[in-house]
Amino acid sequence: MTRTVENNRVNLCDSCMDSYPECNSEVLFGDGIGNDNICCCNRYRTSDVKIKKKDLGDLCIFALRYCMGRMSYAPDMCRKIVRPLLPKLTDDSVKKMIEDCKYQASTNQWGDENIDKPGWIKWRQELEDEKKRRECLIWSTEF
Q1: Of 41, 63, 90, 137, which has fewest CB within 10 angstroms of its CB?
Q2: In this predicted structure, what is the pLDDT of residue 112?
Q3: pLDDT tens string 48-60
Q4: For residue 40, what are the CA distances in angstroms to 21, 72, 86, 110, 112?
């Protein structure tokens, strides 16, 4: 189902597919041409998304892997989204992210040396700090 917004055809948000006349979205994502445009109504923006902890970790890992080596706003934006989720992720997910950072360094997949590399180096340190924080929690609960 589509809806015309500013003479461009866009997809309706998933929450309104069954109730097309009720969608009164004013938010448009994408470049204004093609199928990547999505109308997103208030009902969609306020709905909760339920996801298993492991699946959330996998999703974050896939997003970060996509960003490795890119020279755009995506790596920084992805890290900003994942950062507050770190405490919710499994130990295994954090470990995989650290391993990915080590691989990134060994293959020099930084993106731009001056723009992207410092952010990835800081990100790896944040992951290492999270791992240490968890180890300290385990150690403190054992005694």
Answers
A1: 137
A2: 92
A3: 678 899 999 999 9
A4: 14, 25, 27, 33, 33
